[in-house]
Design brief:
Order of helices and strands: HHEHEHEEEHE
Shape: globular
Distance between the termini: 36 Å
Number of helices: 5
Radius of gyration: 16 Å
Strand content: 15-25%
Strand order of the largest sheet: 1-2-6-3
Number of strands: 6
Structural class: alpha+beta
């Protein structure tokens, strides 16, 4: 697939089938995440792959709304960043999540970024909830979780006509 086609086709999918993500597909998505750039190439990002249904169900309740889709995903990739390596953890995590999302699209997988950073469950930050579920050390930060699976409900691709060129400003 051409790169622009991947960008147009990338959509967030919240409904998944029972079809499994293969090891080869997962490896390719993770490889893309590992290739994501980071500030000063410090590479503070780690990926925790979640496959156990009980853990996916617990993560689906990590915030007040918007994580429920994890219940039906085949896998989830929790993107964690080591703050002892870099203070640009949020930016680096966001880039890695984007690479995961685009790689999933390129492979024909369904995916959705579940934001964790700055979200809450019953007044408690979702990062703390996820940290407790996965037993993650305090010096790691969690920007988001990438849900992965297959779906018959992937929204239609964007078209080049959807590009809002009014958002581009040239300073002369």
């Amino acid at each position: 697939m051409e790169f622009m086609d991947v960008l147009l086709k990338r959509r967030s999918t919240r409904k998944f089938t029972d079809e499994k993500v293969t090891k080869d597909e997962l490896d390719k998505v993770l490889k893309a995440g590992l290739l994501a750039p980071s500030s000063m190439n410090r590479k503070p990002i780690n990926f925790m792959v979640v496959e156990r249904r009980e853990t996916l169900d617990a993560l689906a309740e990590a915030k007040d709304h918007g994580a429920e889709l994890l219940r039906d995903a085949d896998k989830a990739i929790v993107v964690i960043a080591d703050t002892m390596i870099s203070d640009t953890w949020c930016e680096d995590s966001s880039i890695a999540l984007t690479y995961l999302h685009l790689a999933a699209t390129d492979l024909g997988l369904a995916s959705c970024w579940v934001q964790i950073h700055m979200r809450k469950r019953d007044g408690v930050y979702a990062e703390s909830v996820v940290r407790d579920i996965l037993k993650i050390d305090d010096h790691y930060r969690i920007a988001g979780i990438m849900a992965l699976g297959h779906s018959d409900d992937i929204p239609a691709p964007h078209s080049p006509d959807d590009i809002d060129k009014s958002k581009v400003h040239f300073l002369v």
